[in-house]
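SUBJECT: protein chain
CONTENTS: sequence, structure tokens:
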Amino acid sequence: MGWFNYYGLAIMAVIMIPNIIYAVKNKNADSGNYNNKPAVIAEQIGRYGCFIFMIFNIPYTYFGFWFDHALTVYLSVNGALCLAYLIFWAICGNRKGKLRALSLSVIPSCIFLFGGMVFANIPLIVCAVVFAVNHILISWKNSL
């Protein structure tokens, strides 16, 4: 795989579809009452970093799949995580609560982190950790 990760693009498309649909249907939705500015900024940096590094492989910052059958593992695990994400969106999409907050924040965090680890993509791992910590925190606080 060269500088462009087609699999990463497909994974990003799958997890973004329900988010885009939700945003279009709920244009005036409240973004939540937890407004910790540093956490929100860190979450956005991590989020967009994950988007970029899931799709684009920057030379000398990633090492590719580092074990036999890693592509199969990458596609299987991320496929299962994407399916779980879509199922939780279907079940919890319009509800409030801790189940929705945790499932819809932990699963994409796992997708990014797992992808970074299996592909040995250092910037993706860093962005995934920053995103995960802050996204889960913000989602949890907004669910209370």
User: Anything to note?
Assistant: The chain has a mean pLDDT of 93. The two ends are 43 Å apart (CA to CA). The helical segments are 6-25, 37-55, 70-92, 98-118, 122-143. Residues 19 and 106 are 15 Å apart (CA to CA).
